[in-house]
Every structure is written in structure tokens, then in C-alpha cells.
């Protein structure tokens, strides 16, 4: 029997009725249905206190036996299986729920399970006052807009926007798509269940507030070598979409000076704190108590550039070309003066400019070893293996390391081959070495080789070793004279060649014949020499040269005159030759001997050592002229030979004591030795008198290092400039190189002006060439406290204090700027080194024009140097 029961205020009378029904059923069918009979009930008034504690056992039909087991079939979430009590207010969703009761085992029971069906009516809750949320809420739960003092609404209903459904997804609201400052209403409707009445819908109101926007941050990474251009880095560049009224804060760098500062000196941070990650926060305060303040943090990572310069690379090892297919190669990279920590590194290298190759290997104890594939070395060549980049695997690798040039050359040597070479051996004389020239060996790389050769013919030898140096396909070596003593034809055969660097060797069979010529015969040699005047040449005649047609003769002179070995070439006519001994070889009076030391056959080049001598006389010459030994001149005199003493046509000047070519009279003198001779009527000249010419050249004064730099604040003068030079006598300054004005020592120096200084040597009365100096007055080390900043001025045109100007600041801070504001914060003047003085007139025509009124004004000086902070102050304008 199924009964429908509405739980309301008449719950007690219904409960009494069910009790009577239970007694009736128990007396008629106790043994047939131990769990009672199925039943169905509806609970519509969810908020009624009685709905919080409903004993389901009492709602079973028939006469159920106590002590059984309950089961919440649909997992309602409001049922206590131990007590059998249902709390309908804990069921979160209206609907139909099933509960089964199983009675304990009792004798005679034919059905010990009964089902109770409970319909839970709808309840939409009680709305709270208007809710305020921030537009950053992407999933605001509208169930939060209910009064917490009342029973929470059931789920499973339908939400609908009364203003708009934009951003609404079931009970979740995306406030980011709604207009800040607007209020939106939403209605929640719970569906009707069973015979329960329709629950009234509930409307809630939500006001949207705008959240402050601190922007989307971007982190950056910089290398230490990039910081010189980031001394005024704008942190706003690291944000996108931020509100402009935020403020920056820092974490320990001391770069943010006030709430309006957004620039930091990254170079100064690095110099002070070194590499690392530096954080800065941008905070925008909320204009309401609904939205939270917003903060965006940025990170600036600075990495120190690694320096691996001085590292060396060794690639092992060089091979011969017949080893190309089997060779293995290993490269060893060693640290230089800069230590490389142990760890894994990615090494990028190239072979003779081909595509880079990467390998990861460990550095251990300053060395890293890596293999190189033999496929990189497949031909005879010199291969340059170059390290392109070194990266530590664990490093962020922001910086590209400075490695300089780290490379090694690996050689794949060709097997030497000279089978196609050409041998050239010029004819030689008995007792001489034979030079063998190899050409046509351009296939050989430049370098040193060892060859083995045999000699055959009139001279013989076997397995003789010789070293040759090949340059551009050409080389040579010498066959010692002791191996070829016999005149006539000899054959050389080269049997082997070996590269001394690579030890690569090859056999060969090239050969060449050459001639050994006989020496000349001087059995009947006769020499005749004439006597001469001192300083004149003499003639020598030789006879008895037999069948020579041309010869080269070497001779020496001894006795009163001495000449080392001299060689001349002459033609032989009928066995005789003549030649002249120049006067320069026989300048002294007395007996002189000429000795023939060597005679050479010009046709064959063969010579023989001789010892044929002849004595002759040298006649006297005039006395040595008398001349002042030292004759000084100034460089500016441009003196010539005609200025020397003695003077006269009988005196002949030379540039050496044995000179034969007189100097021209207009020869310009230089510091050094000159020689004068006197010539008599017979044409004989005297010995030379020495004259030392001294040309005095006053040195240009030397300017001290950075001597052209002054500070204009110090009021430097011409004397200040003189004190920075190395003048030795008296220095005089002019304002032009030619026809300039003499400058007094007290004259102030001018910025960028050029001055011309001359040093005067009072001992020689000689003047130097000019020292040219262009002056700079910006070499200052003063601080802002060194400058006097006026606290007022009176621009009334009386010529007294008509301008506001900071004297001499341009010398210390050439890039300074100054701004002057009126009491409303408007800029009335902007100045710099090119516009240093304010005349009291407004420059900003946007708000006012003409002359500024009497009153207090404010200035802000930006030094733009050494990271000095701006200086602010006030001044008074009085008309």
C-alpha cells in the first residue's frame, strides 16, 4: 500500500495515522512482509525544521521488523543509514530518491525487503544584498550571492541573465567580458517536482568593478658586454598593457629613487653586484576595496661573458695519404690563462670552414678531449680545425663566450713523387761542388725532403744522402766536390725520396748527366804596372794567358795602399789584357804592390788561385788644407757647401776621405763629416781635411700626456699650457702659425682654440719648429657642490643680474640639462650647454607667453654624468 504524505505543519496528525496503519498491518501480515511494504512520500516544504529529521522507518507500510539494514540507493547525501533518519535539507538537488530497508532474518518471512520512494521538492534559496566583484573574476559562482543566514539553495536549477547572458555559463560568471561600473541581475529558477508547488525564482544583483592592470611582464636576459647601452634602462619596456599610475619597487639594487622613477642603470648593477637575476615589481593600487592591488614582477638576468682566450687546440695526428681509410683523429682542447671549470661543455668546431659540428664532452683538469670523424679528412690537404664556440651545458648561455682564435692544422701528406721531375746540373770545375736543381715537382708540398742518389761514369758513388728544401715545386742540393774529382761526364741517379716532416717515402729512377771542366793554366803569366801621382789611377797589363778568350781576375793591393780582394772581368786579346786601378784604391804616397789572386776562365767559370805580384810608386800631393774642424749652423739657415771654410776654387769638397766625385757647391749641409782637398797645377790633389758640420735643430717642445686637457673652472692661462710642455729654453706662444700674435702668459685659454709654441735655444740662437696644441677645457673632476647656483635674478634690462645662469657647469657636465618650473608645475625654460641662461621669459606658449611674473620658481638640474641624481631647488625672480 503506497501513501502520499506532505510534510507540513500537520506533520504530527499524519504521523499518528501512520502509526495506526502500522498496527493494523502488523496484525494481518507480520509473517508475510517482515520489512513492511513499499511506500512513497513527498517533502515539499524544505525549509520547515521537520524536514531536517525524518524517520524513514516510520514511513514504511505494513509492520516492519526493527533492527534491519537501510540502503541509500541514489546516494542522496542526506540519509543516515545507521539511524534511518533523512535530512532533506542536506539533499542538494530536488528530485525522486529511493531507499530500501532489509529486515533481519525472521522465521516465516517471504519478503524481507521494502522500498521507500521520497520526492524532494524544489527550493531556490534567499538572495543576499547586491554583490560587488572585480572584473578579474573569470568564474564567479552566483550561488555566493545568497544570504548565509538561510538555507542554501538547491542545485540543478537554471540561471538566466536579466540584463544580458554575456559571460554566464550555468552558475559561473566571467566578469572580464562585462562593463566595469555596471550592475547586472540574474534569476535562478528551480524546476517543479511531483505534486509540490512551483518554488518562487530568486533574483540576485552583481556590480562589476575594474581591477587595476599592472601589465603583462616580460623577462629579459643580457650579457655583461651588452650593458654599456643600458645605463638608463626603462623598466616600462618590460610591461605590456599596464596602467600608467603604478610605481616600481626593487629588491636590493638601490636603483629606484622615488615613486616616479622607472629607469635603472644595468651596468651599475652589474658592476656592484655581479651576474645574477634581478627582480623589479610594478604595483598599481586599486581604486576600490573590491579589487585587489595588482603587481607584476619582471626579472632581468645578467650573465658574465666567459673568456676562454688563450686556449689551445691540438689535433692528432698527421698521416700519409695511404692511411686515409684507417686513420683515427683526436682533438685536445686545453685552457689558457683563464681557468675553465670541470664539467660538461658543448664544443662547436669546424674543419677548414665547413659546416660547424657540435659535441658534448667533459672538461677535466683544464682539458677536453673529443674525437673527429675521419670523413673530414679524405684528401691530401692541410685542414684547419677551429673551435667556433664553447658552451657550458649547465649554463644559461646568454652570452657567447669570447674564445679568440683557437685552431690547429692537421696535415694529410701526399706520398712524395718525383718520377716526372727535371734535373738541371750546370757544368762545374774540378774541385767544385755540383748543384743539382730539381724542377717540375709542383706536386710536392713545400718543405724538407731527404733523397738517396748514385753517381756513375767518370766519377762513382752509391747511396749518398742529401736534404732538399722544396719551395714552389723547385729545389736543389749539392754533390760534394770530393765525389767528383775527375774532369769529364758523370751521371747522377736519384733512387728514393722521403718527406722529413711526414716521413712519407717513395722510390724513383730519375737521372741526369753533367760535365766537370778542367782548371786554367798560368805557366807563362807576366804583369806590368805604371807609377802614378797620388790620387790618380794606374794601368795594369797581363800577358801569357795562353788560349783564354775571356777571363775574370781577382787582385789585392798592399804596401802604401791597401785594397781587399777585387774582381774584374775582361776580354783576352792574343793572350793579353789591360785594366785600371782606380785612384780611390791607391790614395797614399809610397810603394804599392798589386797581387793577382785568382784567374777565371770566363767560358767555363773555372778559376785557379795565383800569386803574381808587381810593385809601383804613388807620387806626392799638396798639403792638407787648413780648415776649422767644427763649423756650426742652424737648421733654419739652410746652409750649403759654399758656406764652409776654407773657400776658393783650389779647394775641392768630398763626402768621404777617399771620394773621387767632388760635391756640388750648392749641396745642402747636414750634420756630419765633410772632407776638403787642395789641387795643385799638376792635377794632384792633397789629402782631405775633415770638417765636422753641426746643424743645430732645436727640438719641438713635447706636450705632456693629455696636456691639452684642462678644466675651465680653474681658469687656465697660456702659462698653464707652457707648464705642460718639455721646452728647454724659452717657449713663446702665438695664435696663428704664420704672422700670428704673441700671447701673454696671463691670457686665458679658450675651449677648442689652437695655439702654436716655439722653443728658443739661447746658446745657439736657434728656434724650433712649432708645437701645435688644440685645447679642451672639459677635463674636470669637480662635483655639483663646487658650483654656485644663484637663488635669484632681476631680468629688468639694467645690465645687472639680468640672467639666471650656473657659471662653469658646462666644463664639468657638458651634457647637463636644466628645467625651470613655475609654481603650477609648468615648464617655463629648458636649457643646456648651448642655451645656458634664462632671461625670465616663458618658452612654453601653450599656457602663457611673454615675461614671467615676479615670484618663486623651481629648477631641476640633470647632470647626465656619473649616475648623479638630479638636483632641485628654487629661485626668486624679481622685476
If you average the pLDDT, what whole number results?
Answer: 89
User: What is the molecular shape?
Assistant: elongated
Contiguous low-pLDDT stretches (5 residues minimum) are 1-31
Number of strands: 60
Strand content: 35-45%
How does this structure look, described?
The chain is mainly β. It contains 4 helices and 60 strands. The strands form 15 sheets. It has an 8-stranded mixed beta sheet, with no helix packed on it. Strands 32, 34, 35, 37, 38 and 39 form a 6-stranded mixed beta sheet that branches. Strands 41-47-46-43-44 form a 5-stranded mixed beta sheet, with no helix packed on it. A hairpin with an 8-residue loop joins strand 59 and strand 60.
SSE map:
Blueprint (H helix, E strand, L loop, with lengths): L10 H19 L9 E5 L10 E2 L13 E4 L6 E2 L4 E2 L8 E8 L10 E8 L10 E4 L5 E2 L16 E4 L6 E2 L2 E2 L9 E7 L12 E8 L6 E2 L2 E4 L9 E2 L4 E2 L6 E4 L12 E2 L1 H8 L2 E9 L9 E10 L8 E5 L2 E2 L8 E6 L8 E9 L5 E8 L2 E6 L8 E12 L14 E7 L8 E4 L2 E2 L4 E6 L7 E11 L3 E10 L4 E5 L8 E12 L5 E3 L3 E7 L8 E4 L2 E2 L4 E6 L6 E10 L3 E9 L5 E5 L8 E12 L5 E13 L10 E5 L16 E4 L17 E7 L10 E8 L21 H5 L7 E5 L19 E8 L4 E2 L3 E4 L17 E2 L15 H4 L4 E5 L5 E6 L22 E8 L8 E7 L2
Parallel strand pairs: 1-7, 8-14, 16-22, 24-30, 32-39, 41-47, 48-51, 56-60
Antiparallel strand pairs: 2-5, 3-6, 4-5, 6-7, 9-12, 10-13, 11-12, 13-14, 15-18, 17-20, 19-21, 21-22, 23-25, 25-28, 26-27, 26-29, 27-28, 29-30, 31-33, 33-36, 34-35, 34-37, 37-38, 37-39, 40-42, 42-45, 43-44, 43-46, 46-47, 49-50, 50-51, 52-53, 53-54, 53-55, 57-58, 57-59, 59-60
